Amino acid sequence: MISELRKIKNLEKKNLTKERLLKAAKKIFAEKGYHNTIVSEIVKSAGVGQGTFYRNFIDKRDIFENLLNELTEKLLLSFSDMSSELPKNSQEYRDASVRAIRRMIKTVIENRELVTIFIKEAVSVDRELERKIYEFQMKFAQLAKYYLDYAIEKGFARRCDSDIVSKSVVGLGFSFLNMWLAELIDEKDVDRIINEVVDFAFFGLAGNTGTIRKE
Amino acid sequence: MISELRKIKNLEKKNLTKERLLKAAKKIFAEKGYHNTIVSEIVKSAGVGQGTFYRNFIDKRDIFENLLNELTEKLLLSFSDMSSELPKNSQEYRDASVRAIRRMIKTVIENRELVTIFIKEAVSVDRELERKIYEFQMKFAQLAKYYLDYAIEKGFARRCDSDIVSKSVVGLGFSFLNMWLAELIDEKDVDRIINEVVDFAFFGLAGNTGTIRKE
Amino acid sequence: MISELRKIKNLEKKNLTKERLLKAAKKIFAEKGYHNTIVSEIVKSAGVGQGTFYRNFIDKRDIFENLLNELTEKLLLSFSDMSSELPKNSQEYRDASVRAIRRMIKTVIENRELVTIFIKEAVSVDRELERKIYEFQMKFAQLAKYYLDYAIEKGFARRCDSDIVSKSVVGLGFSFLNMWLAELIDEKDVDRIINEVVDFAFFGLAGNTGTIRKE
Amino acid sequence: MISELRKIKNLEKKNLTKERLLKAAKKIFAEKGYHNTIVSEIVKSAGVGQGTFYRNFIDKRDIFENLLNELTEKLLLSFSDMSSELPKNSQEYRDASVRAIRRMIKTVIENRELVTIFIKEAVSVDRELERKIYEFQMKFAQLAKYYLDYAIEKGFARRCDSDIVSKSVVGLGFSFLNMWLAELIDEKDVDRIINEVVDFAFFGLAGNTGTIRKE
DNA sequence: GATGAATGAGAATTCATTCAT
DNA sequence: GATGAATGAATTCTCATTCAT
């Protein structure tokens, strides 16, 4: 017969601790990578006891997966907002794409630490997380396919195997994400890069040179 | 004279041992990933003593880097063959690209184990290997840029920031490599996928629908 | 006055909690053994908080000792009832023994969980409990000796070192208890076994073959 | 191509280390009991590194089981020697029993440490070792049954359920073992006790008082 | 009195690396 | 040069116990 109030307070306290651990883990994972992070450093940074970690998470992998889930939810959410604005012509399609990319980039910047971990380390943890990462990419590809199919139908995108092309587009995006996080591209160039990449995505290498024909 | 002969023999023997270790490591790294591989398993699989490993390599990272170097050499070699055949028109450009891709895929298939490790694990080992991987990607991008610049100059590729677009193209390639190794795409569809992806790379989403204009 | 009433109520409540803990501990100790039981499981099963345990018992050993005392009291009580009926001849002696054994078995069955713990685990907890267990056995042996001395005096038991023979008889009993709890003997055979064992205890291996003589 | 000699030497070295660990473990287990023994103390006492323990045994349970197997083999061996001397009359039967008991006691004294562990702790480790211990007891009972059946057939043992009576006899033995190891009986009394217990086993409580008859 | 979150000492276990043979 | 037994530092994980609410 503990008072309801008491229970709520306890839960809040526990969640607070969990948050501190997640926050500390996020920072250290991003700094050192999954494999070079040890649990004792996470708890030290979070300012809690070693046992507290194991009260809240099964092991290092578990807290990592928690962070991963947190991120994938955020990213999918920020991308799927696009749904409200189905483009009416090719210009709108292009604009909507640029807007979606910008929104994604914003989310990525806000979660730079998490994204870094996720891009670089997750596939090397174990098979299950590897699968999870790929499934996440495929979810993006499906969303992209949905818009592409619509654009093809309306005639402002080229007839093509929309499945493969969507995967291409998403792959393109993840590649740049990779380069950016690896500091291979300059943050101040982001706008120019977006335009160039979107142009590439829309017009390809050939563009309106009009001289190449499919075999 | 005899001692000279013995020296050579010993060297051969040592190299043989080194080869066995590299072969065993390749297999186990591909199966289990870098971090889940332990040295004792490599030596067991290679059929040599634990100490022999440390006679031939500094540590686990060292043998991994050896394998990585082996692969990057092979891949760059297989790609740079393209240099001999500068395309004379856009059709030849496309054909040369397809040929280059096929050559790459052949090399990748022949070294599937190594490629798997390299794609998934290398960035998670340490900063130095991470850098190495990205430099390798950038080398590819430079090669691609060389051909793209040539094509733009000759007028059978669209004027664009060839640096960024080259990176896009290479990123696209690596994305599909990733999906393929993750068994997200079917091996028997490879030919169709190559064509679709090359079409996407050449014509983009818009293709000759001709209705989108750059802003 | 009111405070007095409250005190009693509180005491009752506390005892209730203690009972629940004892009951839960009894079950889990019997299932998993002393060493494989953790306090957190006892409190979970009892439906009380972790701290409550330490309010009622010093530690795991303490609750175990409580259960042990509970059992030894019950068993000695059930056995010492025999005292009221000193046998008048050897037949009565045998009958009284069988009755005593049956009473004991009944008590054991009613407290199977506790007995299991007591037989198997108590000696492995620490020296003090080990001693306690043996003292308990010796108490039984003393009771048995009392009847045996009486029987020898009356001439319906063989002259012997009644101390050792009593210990033998009690040891015999505990052995079968052990086998039974280890499920090495069939529960449905109990009656037959009692008779066989009592016969063995009374007539030995030789029985009335009458051919063996003491050296 | 390591020389055979080298291999043998290595094996000897390894076995020596294993022996040292077993010896140290035996001592500490007997002193502190299974559950209060920690691996680090075993290795300290054996004068080897912590890792060496885990090269030779899976865990604490494993080295314990090794010791247990060592003991059960010794004991069964020392008992089964009796086979060579099937008794020709009841006197010889009794004499053979006394000899067997003496041999057992000698083995027990020689392995007092191991026996102590085995009697007190083994059943509290886990279900599998518990089972092993009981199976060991039952093996003894089977050997005893073999001799008893022979004695009944020859007419110098009472007709009875030889299965139960054998178990009784073995249980009796283990009880005294227990008491002796618990220092409840005096070592100098051993001879007298053996005689008393054997008399009890042969003549029972009633002996040749001849007044009790089976119901 | 009751609670259960927090604690941290302590135990088990792993595995890269060394070194005597 | 090759071997593999030995090592112990480093890390994970457990669980009895405390204590603020």
In short:
The structure is a homotetramer of 215-residue chains. Chain A has helices spanning 4-32, 39-46, 50-56, 60-80, 90-110, 112-120, 127-154, 162-181, 190-203. Chain A is mostly helical and 215 residues long.
General description of the model:
- Four copies of one chain form a homotetramer.
- With 215 residues, chain A is mainly α.
- The first copy, chain A, has two domains: 57 residues, Homeodomain-like (Arc Repressor Mutant, subunit A, Orthogonal Bundle), CATH 1.10.10; 150 residues, Tetracycline Repressor, domain 2.
- In chain A, 73% of the residues lie in helices and 0% in strands.
- Chain A is built from nine helices and no strands.
- In chain A, helix 1 packs across helix 4 and helix 5 packs across helix 6.
- Chain A starts with a helix and ends in a 12-residue tail after the last helix.
- Chains in contact: A-B, C-D.
- Chains A and B meet through helix 5, helix 7, helix 8 and helix 9 of A and helix 5, helix 7, helix 8 and helix 9 of B.
- The first copy, chain A, binds a DNA duplex (21 and 21 nucleotides) through helix 1 and helix 3.
Outline the fold blueprint.
The structure is a homotetramer of 215-residue chains.
Chain A: H1 4-32, H2 39-46, H3 50-56, H4 60-80, H5 90-110, H6 112-120, H7 127-154, H8 162-181, H9 190-203
Chain A binds a DNA duplex (21 and 21 nucleotides) through helix 1 and helix 3.
